[in-house]
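Q: I'm building a small set of examples for a reading group on sequence design. Run inverse folding on the following structure and report the sequence directly after it, with nothing in between.
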């Protein structure tokens, strides 16, 4: 078996409209498909990233909140590749998104920072 890359990351949100706006308008991810599943009273939104990978955004009634930040068991955070972390940070802040101070990865020497989505899920910007 050979893994070829990551196809998608799945996120369950608490407020579908707010999260749809955040991922499609603020982060500017392209909407591929949007499905409403009446039997579950649930939305599934497929969003494309520039490299072909995707984010699946789900809404589920009564989904529990994340137990802690960021050290809960399970997926720790989702990291996005960017060419310039400083410019990306400035853009997010212009959209009234709080972004942590830029740090340097001591192993790779690359810049990175963290911010949160509307459900306070940790997202990272990593300079490539």
């Amino acid at each position: 078996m050979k893994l070829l890359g990551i196809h998608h990351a799945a996120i369950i949100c608490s407020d579908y409209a707010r999260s749809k706006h955040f991922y499609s308008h603020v982060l500017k991810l392209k909407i591929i498909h949007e499905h409403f599943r009446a039997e579950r009273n649930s939305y599934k939104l497929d969003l494309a990233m520039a490299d072909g990978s995707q984010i699946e955004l789900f809404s589920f009634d009564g989904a529990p909140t994340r137990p802690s930040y960021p050290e809960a068991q399970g997926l720790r955070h989702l990291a996005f590749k960017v060419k310039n972390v400083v410019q990306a940070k400035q853009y997010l802040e212009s959209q009234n998104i709080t972004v942590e101070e830029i740090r340097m990865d001591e192993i790779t020497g690359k810049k990175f920072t963290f911010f949160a989505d509307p459900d306070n899920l940790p997202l990272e910007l990593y300079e490539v």
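The domain at 66-128 is CATH 3.10.180.10 (2,3-Dihydroxybiphenyl 1,2-Dioxygenase; domain 1).
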